[in-house]
Structure formats: C-alpha cells, structure tokens
Amino acid sequence: MNILLLSLLSFLPILVVAIFLVGLRWPASRAMPLAYVTAAGLGLFVWKLSFNQVAAATLKGVIVATTLLYIIFGAILLLNTLQQSGALRVIRRGFTDISPDRRIQVIIIAWLFGAFIEGSSGFGTPAAVAVPLLVGLGFPAMAAVVSGMIIQSTPVSFGALGTPILVGVNTGLSGDDSVYQFIQQMGMAGATPEAVGREFLDMIGTKVAILHAITGTLIPLFVVSLMTRYFGEKRSFVDGLKVWRFALFAALSMTIPYVIVAHVFGAEFPSIFGSLIGLAIVIPAVKKGWFVPAKDEVWDFPAKETWDPEWSGIVELKDSPGDKGAMSMFAAWLPYLLIAVLLIITRVPALGVNQLLRSVSFEWSNIFSSTVSTGGIQPLYLPGTIFIIVSVATFFLHSMKKETFKSGIQDSVDTMLKASLPLLFTVPMVQVFLNSQGGMAGFAKMPNALAEGVAVLAGSAWPIFATFIGGFGAFVAGSNTVSNMTFSLFQFGVGQRIGVDPTWIVALQAVGGAAGNIICVHNVVAASAVVGLLGKEGMVIRKTFVVFVYYALLSGCMGYAIVWSGTKGWLNIGSVLSVIIVICLIAFARSQLKKGASA
Predict the structure, then answer these.
(1) Residue 322: band (very low, low, confident or very high) from pLDDT cuts 50, 70, 90
(2) Cα 434 to Cα 389: distance, rounded to the nearest angstrom
C-alpha cells in the first residue's frame, strides 16, 4: 500500500477524536467508543491483525485504565478528606495571605508546585494534586483543569525522576547498531550494543532542557492570559497580560536552575530542583510585593452565581460545618508535605524503598497467545496508594469523625465510577493503536506508519515536524515515556537520513512528547474526573490546543535552526520562523495591553 495512504489511514482514529470530541464537543463517553471501534476496525481489516491481538490489546487497555481509576480514586479521596477536615479553608486563607490575586495563585500552584509534583511522580499526578487544590481555593473546575493541563509541558520530560529520558529514550534507542556506532564515533563511555549508556542520555537530556527552558518561559503567561480570557468577568487577555513581569519572573526562577541542574546532575532532578528553587525565590518575592499587582488591581473570578454552568463540575467543595477554624497552617499543609516526602522516598532508587514497592508486581505475558503483555503492574508504587495512605493519615492527624471520612470514601467511589466509561474506551483504543504490529498485511504499526508518511512529505524540514510527531505520540498514549519509546529510534533514523545531528532530533521528540500531554485525552479525562468535570473534555482540549501548537512549533523551529546552522548558517528558515513567532506574540500582547489601556 502507498505509504501516504497508509499514513492517512493510521490517522483516522485521531481524526475521529478531533471531529467528535473536540469539534462537535461530544463527551468522551460517546466519542471515545467510536474512536476505539475505528482503531479496532483498522487493525482487523486493514492491518489484518488476529482477533487475539486486538482482544489482548483491548484487555491491556482495560487493565491500564483500572490503574488510572485507582489513581483518580486516591486523588478524589484526598480532596474530600481535606475538605471535610477543614484543611482546605485554612490553605485558602494562607494563599490569600500570600496574595489574593488569582493570577499569582495559579502560577505558584500550577506552574511551580505542579512542576515539583511532576518531577517527583509523573503519571499525571500534578493534575490529581494541583487541580483539586485550585478548586479548593475557589477556582472554577474548568479553569483549574485548563491551567493544570497547560503546565503539563515543560517539567514533563524530566517527570518521575527523568523517566521519559532514562526509560523512554533509553528503551527506544537501545539495541540498534546504527545508534551504537554513532555513540562509538562520539567517543562516549558506557555504551554497549544493548544499551546507549548514561553519558549519551545525559547529553540528550541537556539539549531537551535547553529547548524546554526557552519555549517554556512563556507558559505561566499563557496560563494567566487564557484564564482571564475564558473565565474572567471581562473575558479578556488583558488582565492576564498585565502580570507579564511576574509571569516571566516566575518562569525564569524555575527554568534557569532547571537547565543548570540538567547539565550538572543529569535527567533525574531538573523538574524537582528547578521548581523547589523557583518556589524558594517566588514566594518571598510575592510577600515583598515584587512584580505583583497593587492592592487595588487584584484580579478575581466573577461572583460564583454568575459562572457559566459549564465551568463547574459535579464535585461541590464547601467548608465543613464542623470546622472551627482552629487548625494551624502547618497542620493543613501537612498532608501535601507527606505526599511530597513519600513521592521522593519512593521514587529515588538509592533509598531502597523503590525496589521494595516494585517487587510486588503482576504481569500477564502474551495475552491470549498474542505479542501483547501488560508489563509489570505495581500497585504499591502507584501514586494512588500514596494518596490513600495520606488520606488515612489525615483522618487521624486532623481528628476527623468516622462518619465524615466514610462519606468522603463513598463520594470518591461515585465520582471515580462516573469517570470509568470514557477511560475504559480511551485506553483500549490507545493500546490497539500502539500494538498494531505483526498483522498479515505486513504494515508497520499505526503510529510508525503515520510518522513515516509525514517524514516523506517533510524531507529536510523534518525538525519542524519532529515535535509534532512526539506530541502526537503523547496525545494518543497519554505518556511522554511511551511516545519516546515508540518514536525515538525512528526520529534518530530520520535525523541520519537528512544529514543532521540525530541527537537533536531525538531531543525534539522528547520535547514534543512532553507538549503532547497538554492535549492528551486520557489525562484530560483523569484531571476532569478528579473535580467532577466529566463530559466536557473536548472543551478543555479546545482551550489548550493553541498552547500545544505554540510549544511544538517554536521548539521545532528552534531545532531546525540548530541542526542546520552548520551547513545553512544561523540565518535559516528555522531561525526566521522562531523570530516571527516571538514577534507575533509580543505584537499581540502589546496590542491587547494597548486596547485595555484605552478601554
């Protein structure tokens, strides 16, 4: 079959998602079953996969979806527990003392605290922690989800202690002769025919960090601008753009140490240390009034009774009637402190707890005599377990009543069950898509077939498209790590074929894979489920899609400028497009601010 036609067919499941979920605004519970049927139909009748292969991939998807529902349950239980204990009211008061301005709050919580949680755990955990915290502070549920999804970009490549690089890229590139020969020519230590070696991965990680730091510096400004545009009383970008100094200050407070840590210490710690250093710089600066709005310019959401019904979820957060307000700030924040500590303890291999938790593992190999295996499922290692442990600890720490805690458990189960239908079709669709190799038709699996078609059309301009392929992989799989596993070797090979440094192309893959999390369907479903915003997933993606395009396009253009600078000079299409993108953004911001000043 013609490679372009095969590529187009591979794109059909994604096109179904785009049309029905995003375009027609169908809820995920209706759109994703249709996408699953499309992927399964292509697998059976075009790729000519065996029925067992499709059934096995589907079952693997159900198992993975169950682990996601477990994480969702734990996150909702923690939220309900903190609400019932009165801790959320105390935390809300604490943030008001730092700054009552919602723009400042969202940058501190979503950008800095969210990046720390991402660096510690990954697994979409920031949305499960930061999003409900924002709702608890009084943010509309949709505003919280949109903000939480947008920051799922810059810190993601180094999430879960560098897993997307150290596992994703490593697995994708290991065992290939062309990669091994390239590393040997570079004279790097540690590489073997079976593994690429740590020195090579750290070099790629540094390149990833540089691309992220440049592109990600505008992410906090995107967050506040889109928040005021979609959820402000004036529905204007202007209110968000007015805090551009603070947004850039908060961004650089994280991204500068982030790059330094990546270069000095490797891929495990850029997101963790970058965010912690950022918090240590930004919070004292806010208390001193640096770069923050004056008291008469504080921005807040309109009165709750005027909110669009689509902004709110089914989870209602109210202060507990029994809350006397006597809880200390430390006691209120203690559950989140426990989460942070437990995530680090259980994720750092040197501490030994990591291996102990991972030793409890369940795996189903060659499901239904197919090539599909579940991989190790480690229930004790999942973030959901930590959320449940901390919820139980909070019950004792905050001296809660048994009836109140039982009510929180029941509410959490009910909300989790409402999220189950979309996830039980979304993840199986993904697994059929990813496990579509080995059919009688002899075609490459669907994601690779799609990428090969794009590569044929792109030619030497491939670096600009490399990030979009990485983003596409994460959009489908819901994971930067899986995207890197799937496409790293393909990206490396394209880099060699067009005659550029392939390590930069792999770095672009990793950056694009991180950006893809901004619009990933099952991450949106999971984040929405935590705050009860089910059925509105397409609306969230419509609001975040422009940020994904910005992230993938700017980093891709910069990548083009870098890889072709040696032969075409720095004044090339990539550098010109990069400058044009930045100039257009600045011009747009200035025009909006000028319009706001004259209004």
Answers:
(1) very low
(2) 34
